[in-house]
Specification:
210 residues; mainly alpha; 78% helix; globular
Length: 210
């Protein structure tokens, strides 16, 4: 991969990562509920999901997903159900007192948050099909494929970690301003609505339209 191609891919990665989506909502939600230190584990989990998606595309399985209505639908509806589950849990989340000094709630297990982020990414078949359409445009057929995919994966992960750090940090700053359980409960319900909206958008996706 030439430097010019990599720079173009880098720009594409920034555009893709900055675009609002379920991953950004999950990072914002985790930052709000757990603060940056704990909430960032969700962003790390998102990257494991991203790496799996890239691996699926590199292995050629993504082509099957793009052509099989059954495979696409199974993953899509799992994703819809999981986002609705997150919406329901966020809606029911009670407001809690926040330490005015740290602004962080001492809750949230890293592995659970990582798994949450992982599921948010891997349950989106549109992302796999999107990468199947985009990644090959930056590949040089005459160069080793494995090396190029590794470079792409590293670039996408680093950019996404930076962007999700911004989302998580922004939400954790908001957490410091919430002085009452009622305010926190209201914001939790805003994020519940966002998760629900993401689920509805995913439900409208059709394989033939991607």
């Amino acid at each position: 991969m030439s430097m010019e191609t990599w720079l173009a891919f880098l720009l594409a990665c920034w555009i893709i990562s900055l675009s609002p989506g379920a991953g950004a909502i999950a990072s914002l939600s985790s930052g709000l509920n757990y603060g940056f230190g704990r909430g960032y584990w969700t962003a790390i989990g998102l990257q494991f999901g991203l790496l799996l998606q890239i691996g699926v595309v590199a292995a050629g399985v993504g082509a099957l997903l793009a052509t099989s209505e059954t495979a696409f639908s199974l993953i899509k509806w799992f994703g819809v159900a999981y986002l609705l589950f997150l919406a329901a849990r966020q809606w029911r989340s009670p407001g809690m007192a926040v330490d005015p000094e740290s602004g962080v709630r001492p809750v949230g297990q890293p592995l659970a948050l990582m798994f949450r982020g992982f599921l948010v990414n891997v349950s989106n078949p549109k992302a796999v099909v999107f990468m199947l359409a985009v990644l090959p445009q930056f590949l040089n057929p005459a160069a080793p494929m494995t090396t190029q995919y590794l470079v792409m994966a590293a670039t996408m992960v680093v950019v996404d970690l930076i962007v999700m750090a911004g989302y998580t940090g922004l939400a954790s700053r908001v957490l410091r301003l919430l002085n009452s359980p009622g305010q926190q409960r209201m914001l939790n319900r805003v994020f519940a609505a966002l998760f629900g909206g993401a689920a509805m958008l995913l439900a409208t996706v059709r394989r033939a339209s991607i």
